[in-house]
TrEMBL record:
PROSITE patterns: CHAD (PS51708). Residues 1-256 form the CHAD domain. This is CHAD domain-containing protein. InterPro entries: CHAD_dom, CHAD_dom_sf.
Length: 256
């Protein structure tokens, strides 16, 4: 399939998935609506990243960024509320669950989400028009070059033992989504793709535990849980470091 057709097809599927997740969030059918909205928005940004400087792409990329920025604090609060409920901290969980629930309606009706859907509606025709106007010449090569640069950036971070693990988590996440968007242009082995997935999950677990332990210094009702979170964060990071080492080796083998 020509690369422009693949981009349009993926954008259309993500548009449908975003609307479906939004409907679930609005109807409160489950507690994964916001999470799925954010995952699809991140996948959209990964699809657009290699071409985001194009005029017909820039506005959609910016709309996705604004939506993710808007919803990031709420998602953090939602994850914390779920963690508190899991730990049996009922009182702490309920107060945060109430705050999350009241914020759902604001997200569903937000201008940021409305703008994201509007830009997505226009994107396929805008991209086709750019193609007809000759703005997408050598598109495949341009995307491939961007993806290889992204891969090299991650490899350099993996080779630097003191590289910030929060930033490394983001680089890993971006490459994983990039591979999902452009598997033919970013050829990595299945084992490497699996290592990316595991590294993202384990660093994500560490990030959450680390964030909660920090929050507990400012939020007095969380302080009884601080020690548990500090211990869990240390264990999660130790596990992640093993997977990071494996990922480093896998990527080296893929590039040989």
């Amino acid at each position: 399939m020509p690369v422009i057709d693949s981009i349009v097809a993926q954008a259309l599927r993500l548009d449908m998935a975003l609307h479906e997740a939004n409907a679930r969030m609005e109807a409160r059918t489950d507690d994964q609506g916001l999470h799925d909205l954010r995952v699809k928005a991140r996948r959209l940004k990964s699809l657009l990243r290699p071409i985001r400087k194009l005029d017909d792409v820039k506005s959609l990329d910016q709309a996705a960024s604004k939506f993710l920025k808007l919803t990031s604090p709420l998602r953090d609060l939602e994850v914390l509320a779920n963690e508190l409920a899991r730990k049996g901290a009922t009182k702490q969980a309920r107060s945060r669950q109430a705050a999350v629930g009241s914020a759902y309606a604001e997200i569903v009706q937000s201008p940021e989400l409305e703008q994201l859907f509007a830009e997505l509606d226009d994107f396929p025709s805008n991209l086709r028009a750019a193609d007809r106007n000759g703005e997408l010449r050598r598109l495949k090569k341009r995307i491939s070059r961007k993806l290889k640069k992204q891969l090299r950036r991650l490899q350099a971070a993996l080779d630097a033992p003191d590289h910030d693990r929060h930033k490394l988590r983001i680089l890993i996440k971006r490459l994983r989504y990039a591979h999902r968007a452009y598997p033919q242009l970013l050829p990595i082995s299945k084992k490497t793709a699996t290592a990316l997935m595991h590294a993202q999950a384990e660093l994500g677990d560490w990030h959450d535990q680390h964030l909660w332990s920090q929050n507990s210094s400012q939020e007095t009702d969380l302080q009884p849980l601080q020690a548990d979170w500090l211990t869990a964060a240390a264990a999660a990071l130790e596990e992640a470091e093993t997977t990071i080492a494996e990922l480093r080796t896998r990527l080296r083998r893929d590039s040989e």
